[in-house]
Protein 1
Amino acid sequence: MLYREAGEFKTSYQADLATFPIRFDLWGFWSVIAVAALVVPFFVNDYWEQAIFLPFFIYALAALGLNILTGYCGQLSLGTGGFMAVGAYASYKLMTSFPGLDMISIVLISGAITAAVGVFFGLPSLRIKGFYLAVATLAAQFFLIWMFNKWGWFYNYSATGMIAAPERTMFGFAITGPYSKPAVTYLFCFAFLFVFAWVARNLVRGRIGRSWMAIRDMDIAAEIIGVNPLMSKLSAFAVSSFYIGMAGALYFALWKGAAEGTEAFPIELSFRVLFMIIIGGLGSILGSLIGAAFIVLLPVVFKVLFVEYWGWPTDIATHVQVILLGALIIGFLIAEPHGIAALWRTAKEKLRLWPFPH
Amino acid sequence: MGFLTDAFFYEVLVAGLLAGVMYSLVALGFVLIFKASGVFNFAQGVLALFAALSLVGFMSGQLPFAHVINWLLGTQWHHWYAPPGVEGEVPPFWFVLFCIALTTVLMIALAWVVVRVVLRPLVNQEGIILFMATIGLAFVLEGVGDLMWGANVKKLDIGLPAGPSDMIIDATGMFVEKIEISAAVVAIILVIALMLFSQYTKMGRALRAVADDHQAALSVGIKLETIWWVVWSVAGIVALVAGIMWGAKSGVQFSLSLIALKALPVLILGGFTSIPGAIIGGLIIGAGEKLFDFYIGVPFLGGATENWFAYVLALGFLVFRPQGLFGEKIIERV
Amino acid sequence: MSSQTVAEAAGTDREYAHQEIDHGLNPRRIGDVVMEVKNITQRFGGVTAIKDVSFDILEGEVRAIIGPNGAGKSSMLNVINGFYHPQEGEVWFHGKKLGNLKPHQIARQGIARTFQNIALFHGMSTLDNIMTGRLTKMHRNIFWQALWSGPAEREEIAHREKVEQVIDFLEIQAIRKTPVGRLPYGLQKRVELGRALAAEPTLLLLDEPMAGMNVEEKQDMCRFILDMNDEFGTTIALIEHDMGVVMDIADRVVVLDYGKKIGDGTPDEVRGNQDVIDAYLGVSHD
């Protein structure tokens, strides 16, 4: 009898527009946030930071970005890896050129630079649609990675062609470099995800979000009722790339610490983020988070459960994991194109009516 | 036009054109499937990889899923029959043919599974959903292929002529691999066969009918699922041919599936619905990327521009001529 | 269908509509010319969809465009919307030439539209669909949007109130939060009308608003159209196949056939026009 909206009446449009209209959800949400912000940092160790939390926060940020473009605005992109690389290399150049710049600004500016690059590669979307656009974004992926590999300026002409994050501190705590503490990087990434998930939520529920969705659902009709397709698509590309660029900067500076263009940002990275939003839910903020968690946890679960616990050979476990991932993609597209988030919503609807569904 | 007298120009051009034939072969499979089912099949390249892996597997008598079976049963089985002929040499011709036939049957069976499991439940979905489903399919096929035949690089030798062609060296001084000439010949034969098939057979007419209008085709009693099965089978066979050619040239390995990505810009150039377009698009991309890298990439940009040239060229095309070279212009309606 | 039955069908619906008008509040005001379509010719490759068509629309009137299938009616609306740019001719709206304006710019001039095959945004709820009609009137920039609390939220609520009025007017309160894909056809048409109405247009283009509806739904739709015209003074141009409906609610009718204008005038004038009768009875063209 806990999960009920009975007795909760909305008396204003403001209350009706709330993100968590049901009180129980609101409490649940804030308790999760409280635990994540106040409790987990005291217990997080290197393994949990490196294998689960940072990947989750960073991929969730990237997935939010791609979901804005693909899930909300309907423009399929396979260039996520390339755009993450832009964020990473931008943050590297900023960190090495402006040693005084604090890390928050670096991540934000890297996002802004990526947004500009994203808008440039988004220009063809004004003429082309669907998988044609997907091919155009492949151009971004391959060209950008090639550029970062070939042009020495981007990696400061280092002999290995690698970029490595110099040490940066914030409030006296090391954030990047070898001495950074798990709790610090954890909180830094968590804060970014929290703030920008909230921003994404705000964007998609207002004027801009509706113009994106209108373009996605029926672009010609949208234009005829007054949506400017140029502004709408390019703003989706800009916002999306901004998120992906920030994710790339965090990926490089806080998580990996060092990167090499071809290996760190391959086309597979683009697919991985795409899979997150398909499995999590296209056009859903919660879905981006669920999808990121799912894809991050899948290999961990395989390793812990199948390889270490049940003793499967590693290569078989890897292949099975690839098959499972592909099968899940197909399965979700067939059974529930709106992903786990939609399953979650349906479950909540059922729960709301339980035990008298009629 | 000084470069026209440059001997390198022709050598690079020919090498590019021949590489382009390979792209065309993959692109051909795309076009077939796209025309008949409106599906943009991302898995075409993995299909080629899977076909080549299976062919090698059959030719060496390797036991499918040997690794899994041995792990589950604790056995040490690796082969289920010894291939005829002398080890280390090209197997007898009849055996090669037999193995190709076997692989063809496998591809047809695979097509049936794909239609049943992936396409039928997704009928009437938007193109973009189907496209993403084929990305999933690519992953499944890749995993199954590795699990079935092992993930190591394999040599594929079905007795195609190898090495540089002496005749061409003597005549022109150019260095051309025989295998590439064979690929070009096979591609030409394949295109002619496909055209004859679609023009002069009943099934071919049905295919064209479906490509024109699904609904109308259904209403005159053409069974959509059968058509899809046929088309995916034909695309599987085209993939097998592409797999053989690529495999014989550079070994059967995962990078084979990446040529699928190169086929995408080929399609954009040629238009998604045009068979000659796929061929010409492939040639343009193949020759273009080699020439660009030779004259501009290596001297001025640091080389390896082949990684992106095709995509950027396609991008330019998309912006200025979205329907490709041979596709039809679409008039939008509301 | 003979002209006799056309007239009969028109007669029955006419009575019904007149009752409605009698209960109406405001007397109809027909004003000056708001839109002038001048010598439009639209070709697609070798096909001429519209050939030298001119007509005008007066403020506050209900103007119908009729004609057999393929007569160029929807193309005409597409030209007005700026979705097609005709090879010849021009469209003037409120004394301004629309020229090469893009569709979204034309929408901002106060022209809204519904579509022949419903063009709702299927991923959104009824409420969100109608809210998209307000997009041309919402202006908060992306930074206020990102912050939400404050100006963006206030703007949203102000427009939400307008949309709720539209929802009340169209009597669709109960389906406010339903995804439009789940609605039956007739309701979808109504939501689409709501989306156009939410834009508070001065000229409303309706492309076959009653196609595929049953008698009750048609009556409802007629009532909404006439009420809109009466209460808000919205000028309406509509394409319709149901002759009874057209003869009943339209003030003036344009008849197109094979892209050419063959008749223009009040319903009674058009009904007596020999060319129009021929076009509808299928007399062969020589």
Protein 2
Amino acid sequence: MESYLDNSATTVCSKRATDMVVRLLTEDYGNPSAMHQKGVIAENYIKDAKQKIASTLKVDEKEIYFTSGGTESNNMALIGASLANKRAGMHIITTGIEHASIYATTEFLKEQGFEITYLPVDKDGLVDLDALSDALREDTILVSVMQVNNEIGAVEPIDEIAKIVHKKSKNAIFHVDAIQSYGKMIIRPRKSGIDMLSVSGHKIHGPKGSGFLYIRDKVKMKPLILGGGQQKGMRSGTENVPAYCGLAEAATEMYENFEENIEHLWNLKNRFIEGVQKIDGCSVNGKTDMTSAPHIVSVSVDGVRSEVLLHSLESENVYVSAGSACSSNKPAVSRTLKAINLNPKLLDSTIRFSFSVHTTEEEIDYALSVMGEVVPKLRKYVRR
Amino acid sequence: MKQSFLIKYGEIAIKGKNRYIFENALVDQIKFALARLDGEFEVTKEQGRIYVHTDGEYEETIDALTKVFGIVGICPTVIKDDTGFEDLKKDVVEFVARHYEDKNFTFKMMARRAKKTYPLDSMEVNAALGEAVLYSFPETSVDVHDPEVKIFVEIRDKIYIYSDEIKGPGGMPTGTSGKGMLLLSGGIDSPVAGYMVAKRGVTIEAVYFHAPPYTSERAKQKVVDLAKKVAVYAGPIKLYVVNFTDIQLAIYENCPHEELTIIMRRYMMMIAEHFAKADGCLGLITGESIGQVASQTMQSLMCTNEVCELPVFRPVIAFDKNDIIAISEKIDTYETSILPYEDCCTIFVAKHPVTKPNLKSIKKSEKKLEGKVEDLFKEALETVEVIEVK
């Protein structure tokens, strides 16, 4: 038996998305910029993909820009908006629990002369709204907050944050990293007051190398990738038609069966939490009620190094991640876990389980039984 | 274009009656090194010299040859038939034209007339060829005491023209000094130790102790990668991967913690020696260096050494870390060695390990393993994974 519980790292590409990718690689493979018929066909595929994605967010298809994935979307949003709006101010606000693709980018912008404020979070990973309100200034041009934290599954109060931002700083653009939330939550950028939104394809059963950035009409942006002027000059380079259309199929699937999918995920998550809490030494981090994300559970195991636990589970075909899988192999301490003030001795003893619509109850039960066997064994051996 | 190289070797030449064994081994190693490159090649032994003739890429060939132990120098050589002295003059001038872009140098002709029927003697050849070079390239000048370039012309059945000597690695050809078993970890020192002993002609086998889940698949892959890098010099390496977890846990459960590392290393030596003897190795090789860590003090080394019957060779025993790093950079193992995949074993490292272990006390502690570790030891030997690293 195998139990793949690392769906926040990446997911299996769905059949429908895969079929689309293959068709566009082997049959309708034209360059959308070509003047002949094959080009027109490819261009229509892209239009169609944009429409499909726009309809999941109830926005205009003209506001969707395809990228190579979440990291590029986040880079494009932050650097593009900062450069285009720096005359209005040089102040940027974000949080202390963002993904590396936000954190590394704000640190880069700091080197370029921007001032960055990192907001604190509470023990559940929720942004301190008073601190946000205090930090906002007239020269604040950009606020970036993730909707769902990738390590502990905290859901940030995006609507409230947007209200506070737009009320206090007229010039501020509000960017949301929705890489872990898109497909698992209903998102309405217009209603919520979101100006930019980053999404990755391979986290929702689309192909790797696909993503998009929603940019609300009239947001001033500068492109990062220059060239032939594709995507209205905002992101040059021949469109990766197979990846973008695969992403659109995956997104459509996620929202077609949305209610059912979410119910399934909650069933898995509750089942898992109930089981894991019975294992000696295991504790679940952050909120676990309906205000948390339905697919992520962070578990600390007292006295066991996360990497050792991960390899033990792996030897029984249970796949999880330690810390954040996206942030390279280096055993660095997680900024998120530090920010929620996790007991320091658990920082290196925390693993993440993440589920998908394809995960079954049997996989959950199997993973729990393996945990139940492995954890007591490993806890016997601590450094003395 | 066909290119020839004269291969110079040092120590082999003085090995008396065994000389042909060493020469043949060197020829084999050169063939092994060149076989990986594109192009046809031929290795010949003529009058106590080894020549390589190849139509392969020049830089690539040099790079491969500078990694063959036993080679002291490599001279790019032009080989011609004797078609008269006028032709030889032209050939030497052409040789200078092709090998030196900047002709602003001092030189000396170094003719050697081995073929006594040649119409001119060495002195006359030197004078006439020197004049020809000076005439063709007025920027050059002759300096017989301290020349920048020595141009060698050897007149034998054929004529050999060469000048620069590219330094080889020295040492002895692999396969001429028996076999040794290297204890290979993922660190910096052990690959260097393996390289150094291989340089003396020793064929290397290696053993790695894997401790899943405390060490990861990536840590194991790293050791395979390191073995591959050493194999570039040492030739193919037979790598034993021993699953050491259960023995380690048994030691952890039964023995005093400050002695864990010493006892663990004694078991590693015993296992390494088992495979060494089975394969006819004549010694163990480790990357230990006095005082580097608690388990490498003189006292600790004495304790770990005590379990072995075979000699244990420790080529970096008196090297400082920086010196070892310098060699690892030279042989290109450093970058791989410092990849961070193996710090999960820390639970098996006592916070305050003994630095001056007492053999009696260690043996007393090991008594506690009796009846518990024997089966695990046997199992570790039986479940070993063998990887042929090329």
